[in-house]
Amino acid sequence: MVNENSTEENMVVTPWEVRGFVDYDKLIKKFGTKPFDENLQQRLAKFTDGDLHY
Questions:
Q1: How many helices (H) and strands (E) does the chain have?
Q2: Please, what is the end-to-end C-alpha distance for the chain in angstroms?
Q3: Residue 4 has pLDDT above 70, yes or no
Q4: Which helix H or strand E contains 39, and what residues bound it?
Q5: pTM, two decimal places
Q6: Closest listed residue to residue 20, CA positions, set 31, 29, 12
């Protein structure tokens, strides 16, 4: 099991680099965003003729 501090120390996320174990829940909380869920997928599909690639 990886403790929270070592995970954060090993995780590097910048516009130019992503390195280490990425804890997406921490990133969502840190940047105040929302997870990409079914509701968001459906909303985006309306603007892209229903063809999403992710």
A1: 3, 2
A2: 29
A3: no
A4: helix 38-47
A5: 0.55
A6: 12
